[in-house]
User: Fold this.
Amino acid sequence: MRRRAFITLLGGAAAWPLAARAQQPTTPVIGFISGRSPDESASAVVAFRQGLAEAGYVEGQNVQIAFRWAEGHYERLPMMAADLARRQVTAILATGGNPPVFAVKAATATIPIVFIIGSDPVEVGFVASVNRPGGNITGVSLFTSLLVAKRLELLRELVPAATIIAFLVNPDNSNARPDTAVMQAAAARLGQKLIVLSARTEQDIDLAFASLGQQQATALVVNTDAFFLTQRNQLASLEARYAIPTIHDLREYTAGGGLMSYGTNLPDAYRQAGIYIGRILKGAKPADLPVVQPTKFDLIINLKTAKTLGLDIPSSILVRADEVIE
Assistant:
């Protein structure tokens, strides 16, 4: 073999490792943007990772997760969403209310998005239909907004003597106006007097509870909202201090000292979202993945809180409870 040919072959062999490294697939990165805070979302993140694992992905091995937490400050979300879009993450999970989804939709029309929301995704304009979402977005809807009227009915059954019931909403959440309309219609149908209170900060929540006595409200419905969920300990404390029977949408409130909740299973929603993200990483398109809908709603009662409030839970409610915390 001539010397020039040998050098050529040697040079080609030396280039093989470089070529192989260049062809190795990069580890996908999932953007995780939430209106909630990391501490109180720990169980949700565990459930999301479980879903990813069921789809064949383990954080730190074959996938990375870039977390972005708004901690109830919705004004931070557009910047966070823009940052994930600039990083060109492989897919995005948007959770903790409607605001994170609006933010990521505004930031990208190409990166696949999976949401977890309480609203009807068609009604708020996130998808074209539940079965065929279209575009770059799909996800899990808890349809908690559809249960607003049911929570009012349950609270009236628990506290039939309540002449005035309050409804607490976060005006920064896009669900505030439509859910208020649903609640007002339900109250009118039931002949129930209703007042609407707004809170977007911790201080606002304190002020809202302080005003209950002045407005003679003796029971409360707390609307679905990520900020309220981050403040569930504050809410439980105020509910006890003012002795106000309250119903929420998620078990997390009741487990933290709230009286009653009626809604879907939040950890399972995160697990389902993890499975969907895994399918997208394997090549599925969001437009072809139907929005996951709940098939079961859980009624949770905290008897310890009921005793503190001096309430006797009617047997008609207890027999329907899916879980009783004692």
Summary: Residues 28 and 253 are 34 Å apart (CA to CA).
